[in-house]
């Protein structure tokens, strides 16, 4: 609940504006003033002053301080977003990324003067290749989706080098949305492969679609239902027998570090989400980074330039005639590479394995605590995330979205909802390895309290959230008709008086 003293600042800065207030104090000009019309072309001048908020310096400080208190992030709260791996970002990573030799290094610095940075990139590529069982890695992609695109472009170049004109890529119906998007962007026709009753790939449907026109099969392991694909080796063998490459979406790599490797399972390509598995910041704390690993037969097609080592020196290799080319400016999001490298060196091989073991343990703990009150989407045990369903709550008139909105009242960010698409009323929960049992219990207590409310007081959930500064939005209208400009002519005062709702013990 918002504190009484902060309610005045639970408003837009335009709404606390008062005519005549200033947030600055400047000395009088000591040079003659001239009209703007004499200094600027007429077409560059406004007909009337811009409608900007008029606030004091103190108002500005309180407004933005309040916004910072309202902000929700991994450093302050539990973030159970499924398929997002919102784990803690160790502060030693930040310290290393801010070292002057890294942070102030200009990207056009000659290789001879940037040996430390090039060595870090080379060593990071080697480490990621070892973790995934791949032969080479490109660090250029700036996000997981761009890593996907790079991987598919290399697959396309490989087939073209063999004189093959394959036009289709197969993708399971449980896939992340970036998979078909990246594939289509690379010029392929996307063909959907069905899942079986347990959420695994339907092998019969896969076999029906495989043929000489299929370039690749793209699959997430563990899959988006939180389960390890039980016949993944057989899937790879089927694809290779038809000449297709096998691509692993590495979004869920946090479940298998040090336990198994994509390359050992038969995958030809795998991308890494450094902002998931390797603790670099998400979103506004980014930018992202999505390196892509490949087997040796795809190495000639890596994006240029490639960091290479000759004797004890490092260089950028541009002479790669079969390369798919450059993906973006310079060499990748270097600050993210420093953070990921620091994390890998800090954890070591044994530590990375424990990461996955604890991530899997935490997800299974949540699933076991909640399975009596929510449906489980696929038979367990799960891997790093569990997918529940609010099907039984829906029979009471309560949806997964209602459950998610009510969680906000109880102090928790909502899990991913309505994904994967093949699960009705899906609630995808990924606790990661960095959350304590106390936090997991508090979250489970809140989910159990919501399940009881759904049975006893469903209207409480339909109207949630009750105690947030912003109540439930018309999300369809917000997406289709976003209001991105403050309306001075007609803007009603918001309801900033929160309703008191008691959270369950421990939340």
**What topology, given as strand order, has the largest sheet?**
1-7-6-5-4-2-3
Helix content: 25-40%
Radius of gyration: 26 Å
Uncertain segments: 1-5, 492-507
Summarize the main sheet: 7 strands, mixed
Classify the secondary structure makeup into a structural class: alpha/beta
Element order, helices and strands?
HHHHHEHEHEHEHEHEEEEHEEHHEEHHH
Strand content: 5-15%
Question: In one word, what is the shape?
Answer: globular
| Spatial separation of the terminal alpha carbons | 13 Å
Describe the structure concisely for a colleague:
The protein contains 16 helices and 13 strands.
Describe it:
By secondary structure, this protein is an alpha/beta fold. It is 35% helix and 10% strand. The chain contains 16 helices and 13 strands. The chain has helices at residues 36-39, 57-70, 91-97, 100-103, 115-132, 144-161, 178-185, 203-209, 232-241, 262-265, 334-370, 391-394, 400-409, 437-456, 458-462, 475-480, and strands at residues 136-138, 168-172, 189-193, 214-220, 245-249, 269-271, 292-294, 306-310, 313-317, 375-376, 386-389, 416-417, 426-429. The strands form three sheets. The protein has a seven-stranded mixed sheet with strand order 1-7-6-5-4-2-3, sandwiched between helices. Helix 3 (91-97) packs antiparallel against helix 11 (334-370), helix 5 (115-132) runs parallel beside helix 11 and helix 6 (144-161) crosses helix 7. The chain is globular, with a radius of gyration of 26 Å. The two termini are 13 Å apart. Residues 1-5 and 492-507 have low confidence and may be disordered.
